Amino acid sequence: MAQNAENTDFAKPALRPTSPNFSSGPCKKRPGWSAAALETEILGRSHRSKLGKQRLEEVIDRSRAVLNLPDDYLLAVVPASDTGAVEMALWSMLGARGVDMLAWESFGATWVTDVIKQLKLDDVRVLDADYGKLPDLGSVDLDRDVVFTWNGTTAGVRVPNGDWIADDRKGLTICDATSAIFAMELPWDKLDVVTYSWQKVLGGEGGHGVIILSPRAVERLESYVPAWPMPKIFRLTKGGKLIDGIFRGETINTPSMLVVEDAIDALKWAEGLGGLEGLLSRTRANRGHLDAWLATSDWAADLAEAPETASNTSMCIKIVDPWALALPVDQQAMLPKKISQLLEAENIALDINGYRDAPPGLRIWGGATVEPSDIKALLPWLDWAYSVVKAEFDAG
Question: Which of 236, 158, 186, 178 is nearest to 70 (CA)?
Fold first, then answer.
């Protein structure tokens, strides 16, 4: 494996992606982004000022409009990225009923750990599946609360739709949608709590999350008091009533107004594409290019076993070449790492090695900020890098 890639006989593809940023989070900035595009008047001002509240309300209003959110759903900016938003929902609402926890990748497993080991709820059912698969959605009990990710960011596996969620459910559906929202169609009538961050499909900066509540979620908040102490940054009610100012830009803690301005910039870009449908069409095109390549590949396959569950954002591929599968397990794990290192050295693709807890493979972000032409240009480079690395292994 000492052979240098420069000394191989494999010709490099002629076309290069215009941007090498295919990271699954934080993700590529919108095309043409520049810090000079951001409004800076609010910087150095209080987020409680009239201008500060206006900018926070603007990011809320633009988000609602792009998402086509129902009028009676609420949206707020909250601390600590998507993780903070999910934890806010778990700590504030769980415990009133039994809960079904769905997990098929690392982040879903994290929420299981928090509910069992931190909240220490007694009535918890865990429905899990290996990477590449979904749990049996037909066995979910909708009389109980349900916590799930819409798209497994580290597995590239998503729920195909919301048909498995009953309209007359008694429990709440709590959905971590951070790598799905703005890229996949979400059935709002099936979802009671939705969380996300700006740093995925919008390519925004990190630090803040967003929580969306249905009327059923608000009813739970105003009728149920958890048995445990509630940290300040998780508090959505006061005196048994929703703190509704949070949903008008009166944030729980001090936000980064520069991050807010960046989110507004991304939302304006989305509006210029035609809103949600424009974003969806770009992610579909990205997925389409990958599917066409996988259909002819002799070494790669989608990690998702069922095509209808394959993500169009965190697109995960595994190596299925019989030559590779015959290698010792530790060397199989080295293959995608070396491929990603080689492509990074060429400045073709950055940060595409699979997630550390996932099976060895590559993970390519296909969200709307990524140009479909860049996905198309990347794919021949994957073939080139695999051929080079394979030759290095064979050379010993």
Answer: 186
Helices (H), 230-371: 257-272, 276-294, 322-325, 329-345
Three-class DSSP category at 284:
helix
- pLDDT tens-place string over residues 12-38: 999 999 999 999 999 999 999 999 999
Predicted TM-score (pTM) of this structure: 0.96
Structure tokens at 231: 């940290």
Beta carbons within 8 Å of 1's beta carbon, 6+ residues apart: 392, 393, 395, 396
For the sheet containing 300-302, what is the strand order? Answer: 300-302, 314-319, 362-365
CA-closest candidate to residue 78, choices 59, 94, 103: 59
Q: What is the DSSP letter of 355?
A: P
Pairing of strands 208-213, 74-79: antiparallel
Decide if 130 contacts 157 (C-beta within 8 A).
no
DSSP H helices, 27-101, are: 50-67, 81-93
242 CB-near residues (< 8 Å, 6+ apart): 218, 221, 222, 236
How many CB atoms within 10 Å of residue 328? 8
Q: Give the tokens for residue 307.
A: 């095509």
- pLDDT tens digit string along 104-134? 999 999 999 999 999 999 999 999 999 999 9
Q: How far is CA 203 from CA 20, 194, 284, 289, 367, in A?
A: 14, 19, 17, 21, 9
Provide φ and ψ at 193, rounded to 5°.
-135, 130
Helix (H) or strand (E) holding 62: helix 50-67
Using CA atoms in the order 362, 368, 371, 373, what is the torsion angle rounded to 10 degrees? 70
* Distance, CA of 193 to chain centre: 16
What is the side-by-side strand order in the sheet with 74-79? 74-79, 208-213, 193-197, 173-176, 145-149, 99-103, 124-128
And the tokens for 1? 């494996």
| Furthest-apart CA atoms within the chain: distance in Å | 72
| Residue type at 350 in one-letter notation | L
Cα(155)–Cα(152) distance, rounded to whole angstroms?
Answer: 5
> At which residue do the structure tokens 């988000």 appear?
63
